[in-house]
Amino acid sequence: MKDTIRFLGLMVAFIMSVSCCSKFIPPVKLHRDVPIEPSAVLFIVGSNILSEDSISGSGIVIESNETESWALSAGHVCYPEVQDPFIMMSDMWIMMAITQAGEFTPMQVVAIDQTTDTCVIRLAIGDLPSAPMASKMPNIGERVFLGSYPLGIYQPGHVPFFEGYYAGELEGRASYTVPVTGGSSGGGVVNSKGEVLGVVSMAIEGFENITLVAKLENVQSLLDVAKRNPDRLTILR
How many Å apart are CA 76 and CA 233, to the nearest integer? Predict the structure, then answer.
């Protein structure tokens, strides 16, 4: 109980600081060459009530209505123990999603694909800008963009944007030459039209400008599963 109270206290303090800072966000003037709406990029934070371990990552909103939003992130961001076949202690993690404007909300993980390290999230907040899913993979050499929070660097009104190119398929995943590091996981890779191609899963060890992302067809399959079972967690292995 003490751990729970301590964690909740820290979370309240963090939320209050975010809410305070969000009042002073200047209007965002997005350059026409960057097709990602800043408020569609999510900062994801989590803490384990028992161990006090914490994580951070990124996400991207793909749908939103008046009452709720749907987003994508990496599987290991949504559930830190997702690689454990027994999914031990998963209920001990409290996860929050925070927008570029400083709006925060608990997140419900709806579906995880362990093989592609992708997850689908529901957020109890509506009317968020979103990025639609792409209908096809890009051609090799096509320019792509990423919005994420590497190293957990987050402040309301600030979204780091990156760009690169589609490099083809590598080890069963899509490969992009977009720079990433810890905290970039779950960030949405989009094409020049602002359409989501997938989310960052991993980088090549020793050279973090080759980023591996689940192929579009795998992401779409996971979305279909999530929409059929929106009220419970589905895990694909």
Answer: 15
The whole-model pTM stands at 0.85
Question: 83: closest CA among 229, 235, 193, 224?
Answer: 235
- Please choose, from the candidates 112, 34, 102, 106, the residue with its C-alpha nearest in 3D space to the C-alpha of residue 79: 112
- Cβ–Cβ < 8 Å for 189, 196: yes
Residue pLDDT, tens place only, 104-146: 888 999 999 989 999 999 999 999 999 999 999 999 999 999 9
CB-based contacts of 185: which residues, under 8 Å, 6+ apart?
Answer: 57, 58, 73, 74, 76, 77, 148, 199, 200, 201, 202
Dihedral through CA 235, CA 114, CA 165, CA 216, nearest 10?
-40
CB contact at 8 A, 72 and 60: yes
Contact by Cβ (8 Å): 233, 110: yes
Residues contacting residue 184 through CB under 8 Å, at least 6 positions apart: 57, 58, 146, 148, 149, 150, 200, 211
Residue pair 55/77 in contact (Cβ under 8 Å)? The answer is: yes
Contacting residues for 170 by C-beta, under 8 A, at least 6 apart? 210, 212
Measured from the Cβ of residue 154, the count of other Cβ atoms closer than 10 Å reads 21
Q: What is the pLDDT of residues 167-225, one digit of tens each?
A: 999 989 999 999 999 999 999 999 999 999 999 998 887 888 899 999 999 999 999 99
